[in-house]
Amino acid sequence: MSPSSEQQHPDDADPAASSASSAESTDQSAPESAGAQAPEPSRQQIRRWRKYLADEIAEGRLYADLAERKQGEERQILLGLAAAEKRHEQHWRDLLGEHAQRLPSPSAHRVLLGWMARIFGSVFILALAQRAEGDSPYAHDESATRGMAADEEIHEEVVRALAARGREKLSGGFRAAVFGANDGLVSNFALIMGMGGTGVGATVVLLTGIAGLLAGALSMAAGEFISVRSQRELLDATRPTHATLRAAPDLDLDHNELVLVYRARGLSREDAEHRALERLGAFECDCRPELSVPKDPEDETEAWGGYEVVGSAWTAAGSSFCFFAVGALIPILPYLIGAVGWAAVAISTALVGTALMCTGAVVGLLSGASPLSRGLRQLAIGLGAAALTYALGSVLGVSVA
């Protein structure tokens, strides 16, 4: 039978098959027509997308502004982040079309970023930006591409690394300042509350607070100086010396312990043997090992290993003294202006509570955590310590009486 004889006349075709074929062609053409004209977004989608667009514009501007204050590699990294935010911005503009006009204000978090940038500098901004990138809603929003969600995760790691550089520069003296102020607040507030619980007069409470301020500030400064100095001395004791350079010319080429030196420093046997042969002059080496260690171990401006993180002992001690004194002064301010009784207690509690919230928020900013949660934690610890000492003072006052 020829192929032509097997072909069925159109009039003889099965009606059910024709209907199925027609339905199938209709189903296939539906997506094509839908793809040709995207459905109009809902008012809720438009509102959400406009908010996303406003935030992307604010973040891109933030990174660009920070890049202007930086140089070298950090500048290039920040400009790269700004360019990435521009890509995300364009995505939302494409979805919004004619609705990408008269955008709302960015979220409060982005507004806070810009405000903090003008006051505190980049380390605080980067710490906040780290949280903003980590809280991105793109991973759970179908309107955002998977690539955008992945970008936000990578941006968080980039900002985390940049913020870590700033935190290292603020270590030492700044750490002593923040925690010195917090210790002054808590310890002196608890001290005067304990004295107040015994029932003594306002003058005694004031004198006790002043004594606590001086004793605590001196103790903090001395402790911080010893701590930082000890860390620097430990680094001095553990860093490599130039002994291998000085002794290499006089070592026996076949019998020496130079390989053991480098193995003790963590090199593998092969790498240690290679380094030892370099020192002994067996072959040329274009490295300059004399530049790998600071020339003056006593010069605290030299950056080696952990020195930059540890900071200066004198700076740490001075910061601890001053900020502990400032923190310890706040609880006794009402007594200095003549307040007595419960009025003095109320004013002191309000002042200390506000200051604790501020120090906790600063710690939260630097650590990339929520400033509010860290502030509330500091507040709970400070007020809890004061309540406990007041209760003990009340018990002791009754016992003495």
TrEMBL record:
Membrane topology listed for this record: Multi-pass membrane protein
Gene Ontology terms: cellular component: endomembrane system
Record region (Disordered): 1-47
Single biological process term from Gene Ontology: intracellular manganese ion homeostasis
Chief localization: membrane
Alphabetical UniProt keywords: Membrane, Transmembrane, Transmembrane helix
Subcellular location: Endomembrane system
GO molecular function: manganese ion transmembrane transporter activity
Top-rank taxon: Bacteria
Pfam family, one: VIT1
Transmembrane portions of the chain: 189-222, 313-337, 343-367, 379-400
Bias kind Low complexity: ranges: 15-30
PANTHER family found in the cross-reference section: FE(2+)/MN(2+) TRANSPORTER PCL1
Protein name (database record): Rubrerythrin family protein
Organism: Nesterenkonia cremea
Species classification: Bacteria, Bacillati, Actinomycetota, Actinomycetes, Micrococcales
